[in-house]
Amino acid sequence: MQPNKITGIGLLTAAGVGCEENYCNFTARNSGICKVTRFELPTAKVKTDFAGLIKSLPNEALPPELLQMLNSDDLAQDYVKAAVYVTAEAIKDAGAAEKISSDPRRTGLIVASSLGNFLNVSELVKDYFMKELYKITSLIHGMNSYLPSRLGSMFGVAGPCYFVSSSCTSALNAILQADTLIKSGIVDRMLVCAVDVCLETGTFHLWNKIRVLSHRNESPQTACRPYCKTRDGIVVSEAAGCFVIERADAVGARGHATIRGIGMANGASDFLKPSPELLEAAIREALALAQTPSDKIDFIAGSASGSPHCDHMESEAICRIFGARAREIPLFPYKSFLGSTFGTQALSEGAFAIKTMNDNLVPEPLNIFERDERVAANAYYKAADYSSYHINNTLFVNYGFAGNHMAVVLEKC
Amino acid sequence: MSKPKITREELIEKIVAAIKKVSGISIAPEKYGDNLFALGLDSIKAIQVVNMLEDELDLMIDDAHLPKFTSINAIAAHFDSLNK
Lengths: 413, 84
Prior knowledge:
The complex is a heterodimer.
Chain A: E1 4-13, E2 16-17, H1 19-27, E3 34-35, E4 50-51, H2 64-67, H3 72-75, H4 78-94, H5 97-102, E5 107-112, H6 118-130, H7 136-142, H8 146-154, E6 161-164, H9 170-183, E7 189-196, H10 201-209, E8 239-247, H11 248-251, E9 257-266, H12 276-290, E10 299-302, H13 308-322, E11 331-333, H14 335-338, H15 345-359, E12 393-399, E13 404-411
Parallel strand pairs in A: 5-6, 5-7, 10-11, 10-12
Antiparallel strand pairs in A: 1-2, 1-8, 1-9, 3-4, 7-8, 9-13, 12-13
Chain B: H1 8-23, H2 43-57, H3 72-83
Helix pairs in contact in B: 1-2, 1-3
């Protein structure tokens, strides 16, 4: 069975609107992570006052034919607008619009999100309890099925259409399901859209109270420090992304990357702490399904977020699997640029990992100010040492809260 | 006006009560030195306990100290040092 290909990418993060702006700002190291001004902060009660917030999309950023399909409730929500924007960008990039319209049932759509339309739910509660407003649309928009249904109808998709959530691995879980649906012959292509636009006063206060955030208020852009001994927590960031995934035999040589194999291992004895054994199992499964020996992996996109537990267990798992090569393969965590983008990570970080692979451009390590002796994997390389390096296979690692551990092997097309 | 001081015994009472409230677990005095995770707490419940104590005692705890809070005695010792 032929592996499937990623043929279209759409991206929206705190760093930019659209793939190009994001890639340019990655090169310029301008992440957009900054002090929160979009909503009020209970400053006396929170220790962290910065995050990666997407900028509110002006209506004109959306294609006019899509804009006229959105009602006023949709336009009031960045969650919906962000999803529409990235899906349109990915379909355009893949040149898939005609193929979708020629046989709508052969295309499916999955929306992935860790927190879903959380902001709408909090508005609903405020409307109901504080203003005694009974808005039926608030209830409909709060349903996780709303966005896949809305996007499906807007983009003319009539195949499987649903919502997936598994914390930080939501997007990779959705990619796994999309890959499986195509391989099973149910559809020819899938749109996988991930969106987490979920920060406001209440949710940000709660993230502070979970006590996992960096407190480096004086330098937001250097606060997220995976593998750095001076790390002090994660940085939360909103994002949206979309991949178009198609049957390889239907797209020829075209495409951004081939999905070789996806591994998964679940189970959490502790909701907040990923397991080293399960992470190792997920990576080994991805490599086995990809039929890619570990010595063919050229680049590792790490999932480390800037907590000692995650940094150490990830490095240790990589060292056990790759042996001596763990000290040679460049290991780069895109969270050092983007922050932790909730359930969108495999699409938001994944887009950057694919760009890195296709450009053969190993990024300079970011936000590492002091080596951690417990990180033995190759996180402290010098990009100049890889100036004529070729990346044919990338291992993308992804785990988070709730006991989900995943990995995917991506191959250059 | 300075905050009223509380004794180590009162502090331990508050910690035990907070653990009981968030997890339903009653911890006997001979277990005050035992590892909280072995007694049935998980990360979320441990954070809830610290948040409750922070609010009740009107103190701010640096998150970097959280890994040290492995037992009731360890939590009490840290809060006690801030309370002095």
